[in-house]
User: Fold this.
Amino acid sequence: MFGEYGLTFALAGGVGVALIVGSTFTPVIPRGEGRTGSLASEAHAAEQYAFCDDTLDGVDCACFAGRAGQVMSHEALEIRGAETINRTELARMQAMESC
Assistant:
């Protein structure tokens, strides 16, 4: 059909299809905020402790801040086409359930 270039066209087309399929299903690599591990957890915990102390009644703010800080310091993978929840809301919901 394509003569002497048939195999070359078939290989090029196969590589092109593989690249398109691979890039479609590969998750996006998120960029971090520059803070890592316990430093990020402590910073988030301090923010959440202040929130708890100012707005919530009858909640153990130390527990709340620790749990919310842990949740917020984890890097979340973003997947194309998927809906994501606000990380602050997720952290606060999980902290309220735990404490």
The two ends are 70 Å apart (CA to CA).
